[in-house]
Amino acid sequence: MKQMDGMSVRAAVFWVNRDFLMEENRAIDALTVILRTRGCRWRACRMCGFWHESVPSVTQDEILSQFSSALSAAFKKGLLRRDDDFMLKIFTSGSFFDDAEITDITRMRMLDMLSEFDGLRKIIVETRPEFVSEEKLNACISALNEANERCFMEVAFGLETADDFIRAKYINKGFSFEDFRNAALKVRKCGASVKVYLLLKPPFVSERAAIEDAVRSAIAVREIASTISLNLCNVQKGTFVERLWRSFMFRPPWLWSAVEAIIRIKIETEKAVISDPVGAGSRRGPHNCGKCDKNVKDAIEKFNLTQNLEHLECVRGSCTCMMIWNKLIEVDDLLFNAIP
Ligand SMILES: [Zn+2]
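^ thats the input. predicted complex w/ zinc ion below
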């Protein structure tokens, strides 16, 4: 990953890596731009610390200049090349469609700027469902088509789980499956595709129950989503999950659990399945025994770019700690009273 950090809190953070372009079944460069906005309006999810990075006083002009600087710097520094196809992820750690973060005018100006980039094949934005309307979507999609007719739009939702009880009580997400579904259907109706983030191992969910919940959730969204992204719960600073973790009441998921969940989700849904193992191998991130973490992380990353399950099948059983994980999964029912 080639990363460039902004020098000030008012500069966007951006980097380029490879990602899978599901529409063409191949991997291409992906520029991720994280804009500093006033941040997520909800800011109450138990695992999320992103809102600490928000800048309440930022202006719309500053957001536009963050965006254009990041785009031009990515080319100037040689992270992207003019002739190559690429995708662009515009993230705010909040919602692209929240007018309090990014106004209509700013959104239109950002999309207009994209006319300069012939190689752009897809943009991905994130939002909570309550900020989605057909009016906003239609305006953005026609602006995008005008700027670049080869470019698709994908809208990502952090659904986390299809289980309303887990989402409400354990994650404190503040929207229901029905809210997500209605917003996602609007996105589809307006001609964009839907990406769904699922959270592997929310707080208070055991290792095995977490795998089952992720697989069930993927099945529940497979008719709506084109891409399923499995986020492995990590321990971010200043969060409720961090408090649990410090009190030995939360362990991030095993990478073996991620491997198991990804394989089952891919087989069940046949969608593009992505999992970026952020912080893999660290105590705050998803981890195994320490010896095999890098290997398993590499296998997940290879799978991301090829969608070939062999990378994951091969790595299974490559370390003796998989036996410990197997036992853990086995005794889960006993520990949590599923077996009388
Ligand atoms: Zn191991």
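The chain has two domains: 1-150, 161-174+184-340.
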